[in-house]
Amino acid sequence: MRLVLILLIVMFSVRLQSAVPDVRIAIIIDDIGYQKADLQLVDLPFPLTYAVLPHTPYGQRAARQAFQQQKDVMLHMPMEASNGKALGPGALTANMTKQQVQQTLQAALADIPYAIGINNHMGSFYTEQELPMAWTMEYLSKRQLFFVDSLTTSRSKAGKYARQFGVTNLSRHVFLDNEQTETAIGKQFDLLLRIARKRQTAIAIAHPYPETYRFLRQQLPKLQKQGVLLVGISELLPQNHDVVAAGYTAPAISAPQ
Fold first, then answer.
1. pLDDT tens readout for residues 196-206
2. How far apart are CA 207 and CA 65, in angstroms?
């Protein structure tokens, strides 16, 4: 009788484990904060991650709304691009001093205090620069924040300086909606799932386009049947990374040396 009971417990445990997908994906929604419609995206009933632009009309409201729904919030930090595109308020540029870089980061995090990490908005030029990325990672280390490299350039120095300063660093695998059609988004979504099945995890970046909203609303409920689990970005961090919102850490910036 005891042996039968043990076998039943083992079988039940195996069933429970098999019911939880081993394949996990995180989808970061960039560029949150400029449109009131972004709030509708935040309300989608899925554990999406929201990367919020600082100093924008709806940024604080969207971040607070996501936080109240226990969803992951990141700071979407504007960084200088190679093509010279306008960056919006509070951007990091390669000609800044160390003090300017870190004060700009501090102001952005004060605006989005729910952020548990940051990723770059544009940044194809800034993330290639040695000193600016070193100063950025040094500051993130002080604030216990992680960095997700949007990989807008293959020559990004994010990984190098994240390792030097002990910052948790992840990278984007797929952009979902560079082309805003259902067919194009579907192809990128399939690519995301293929990468995730190969690696066990994968990270996508999407944007608050109406086409993206409709696609996610239709397709995300189907993931579990496909053996894939959608998680917030915090679920893909290493176990030794303590998740801390920026509002709980605000060290003063020392004078320039």
1. 999 999 999 99
2. 18
pTM, two decimal places = 0.89
Please give the Cα distance from 241 to 112 (Å, whole number): 20
Structural tokens at position 204: 């996508």
Q: Which residues contact 218 (CB under 8 A, 6 or more apart)?
A: none
CA 1/CA 4 separation, integer angstroms = 5
Q: Name the token pair of 248.
A: 């709980």
* Residue 77 near residue 120, CB atoms below 8 Å: yes
**C-alpha of 194 from chain center:** 20
Instruction: Give CA angle at 222 (221, 228), nearest 5°.
Output: 105
User: Could you tell me how many residues make up the chain?
Assistant: 257
Tens digits of residue pLDDT in 134-183: 999 999 999 999 999 999 999 999 999 999 999 999 999 999 999 999 99
Q: What is the DSSP string of 140-190?
A: HHHHT-EEEE--SSTT--HHHHHHHHT--EEE--EES-SS-SHHHHHHHHH
Q: Amino acid letter at 167?
A: V
- Give the torsion through C-alpha atoms of 148, 154, 156, 158, to 10 deg: 30
For the record, the structure tokens of 78 come out as 């504007």
Number of neighbouring beta carbons within 10 Å of residue 131: 14
Cα dihedral 139, 143, 146, 150, rounded to 10, equals: -50
